[in-house]
Structure formats: C-alpha cells, structure tokens
Design a protein that fits this description.
By secondary structure, the protein is of the alpha/beta class. About 25% of the residues lie in helices and about 25% in strands. It comes from Gordonia insulae.
C-alpha cells in the first residue's frame, strides 16, 4: 500500500512561519506513515496578495512580491532537511538562472534528491505580470511512482493532465492557491462557484486520465484573496477518497496503485481508445479558439 496526503494550509511572506507549518505537517505525515505529501502552490513565501492589473501583480514593483528562490538555494535545502526520507511536492517562486526572471514553480523532492521541478504554464488574471510562464510538462520517477506536477489554473486545461498521463504519470500532484469568487461570493464558501469548479476539475482530471490526483490548496486569507481549501485525494475513477473541505488540515488515503490501475483501466480504456487522428484541429485553432474553429468546421 502507498499512503498519499494533501495539505490545506495558510502560507505567507514569513518564511520561518512557513517552515514551521511544513514541519508540523511532515510530523503528522510521519505519524500516519505517509509516503507522498503534497503542499500547496507558493508554500514557501506565499502567493500574490491580489490578482488583476494592480498591486503586487505589476512586474515593475517589488512590493509584497514572494521571495524569489533558486532551485539549488538554501530555502529548498531547508525544506529538504525537514522532509528527510519523505517524498514531498511543494510550490515556490523560482528565480531563473538569469537572476531576474521569476516563475511560479513546484518541485518534488526528499531530503537527498530533487526528482523534478515544474514551471507553471497557464496563468490567470494578470499573473503574467509577476511571473513568466513555463513551456512544458514533465513526469518524474520517484520512490512512490511516476509523478507529474501542475499548478492551480493548469487543472482547467485537459491537455495539461493528458500529456502527463501519456508520459506514464501514475500520480498527478496539483498544487493551488485557489480563491473564492471575487464577486457574488457565497456566504458558505463550500457552496461558492469557484469552490465547485476547483472540486469538479479535480475529479474530472483524475477520471479523464485514470490517475491518482492529489490536490493541495492554500487555506485562510492572504491579501485580498480568500482561499477555499478542499485539499483532497482522488482515485482514477474520480472518487474523492478524503478531503479537508474548507478547513486547514491534511487529506490522507491509503491506496494500492498497481491494483487500482488494473481494476480501473481494465474496464474503461480512456488512454488506449483515444483518436489522435481526429484531434489535429486542436493545434490549428487561433488563440481564441473561436473564429478559427468556425472556419475549420465549414471548410
């Protein structure tokens, strides 16, 4: 059996507080014999305090921006010292080799090795004013299986998860700082329309690709953002095995990866039964996916 876990918690600009929170959940994970623990997007240094064309989303200001961290820097090394033999995925603001470019990034690692890292490809609501975007998706061999990483808004794009599933991903870790709706926010955040979408994407992507899906998310508030939590483990049939709902905490599930894949993929063949010959139009559409589609449809 393999034990998977996802964290919902609040992470800010206070790095020492972040490390303490990471230590707390790593300790809890060890008590429950967790093999793979997923922290949220921006768990080292916090996320942006607002989204849109204002405030700390403007590239030309450093006000309140997350600390920029090198993959080989002391902050990641500190997390590795906490992780020990536990495999974790964690989000941070990565500083590129040129010393200027920032990426919204994640890495999967343990105390002795970084197995892989990822730079967020899809950017919502002005996030591109603070971060450059990544260009591809990797899948990494780890002690708990082949793992793919994606961040937040990526989950709204089926292609992102599919390319990792086709590369052999058994587990996709989806790290988020997903807030409630900015307008007409529901009084009960569990009923908020953005919470609904967050949860729907998680179950759909797991079922689409018949993979284990681990969704971690920020909780609480930061700046103008109010996060919806709902960290969860989803199996390849789209079934939620455990969830934190709105609360901070840790969702945990014991799974048999090989046996589950045999059962789930032995009855429905979502990857085998694809028809790539019919999908070529996907890469021919214009940037809006609108006018180009109509033109091709009537050609």
């Amino acid at each position: 059996m393999t034990t998977l876990a996802a964290v919902a918690a609040n992470f800010t600009r206070d790095l020492e507080q972040n490390y303490q929170t990471i230590e707390t959940y790593v300790a809890q994970a060890r008590e429950r014999d967790v093999d793979f623990l997923v922290f949220p997007e921006a768990a080292i240094g916090g996320y942006l305090s607002s989204l849109g064309n204002h405030g700390d989303t403007v590239k030309t200001t450093s006000r309140s921006l997350p600390p920029a961290i090198r993959l080989d820097g002391p902050e990641i090394q500190r997390v590795q010292s906490i992780a020990g033999d536990l495999v974790i995925a964690i989000g941070f603001c990565e500083l590129a080799e040129d010393g200027e470019t920032r990426y919204n990034a994640a890495a999967v690692l343990d105390g002795s090795r970084i197995y892989g890292s990822y730079r967020k490809v899809h950017q919502p609501l002005g996030e591109n004013m603070s971060y450059s975007s990544g260009t591809d998706y990797g899948v990494f061999d780890t002690p708990i299986g082949r793992v793919g990483l994606q961040i937040c808004y990526d989950k709204a794009f089926p292609e992102a998860a599919r390319v990792m599933a086709l590369d052999g991903a058994e587990i996709i870790a989806s790290l988020s700082a997903w807030p409630a709706a900015r307008t007409a926010t529901a009084e009960n955040l569990q009923e908020d329309r953005w919470t609904y979408r967050f949860n729907l994407f998680d179950t759909a992507r797991a079922l689409d690709n018949q993979v284990f899906w681990i969704a971690a998310n920020q909780a609480g508030t930061f700046g103008s953002l109010r996060y919806v939590g709902n960290a969860k483990i989803v199996d390849p049939g789209g079934n939620i095995l455990d969830s934190t709902l709105l609360d901070s905490g840790m969702a945990v599930a014991d799974v048999d990866i090989a046996e589950t894949f045999t059962a789930m993929r032995g009855g429905m063949f979502h990857l085998r039964d694809r028809r790539p010959d019919a999908y070529g139009v996907l890469t021919e559409l214009d940037a809006t996916g609108d006018a180009g589609w109509r033109g091709l449809a009537h050609a």
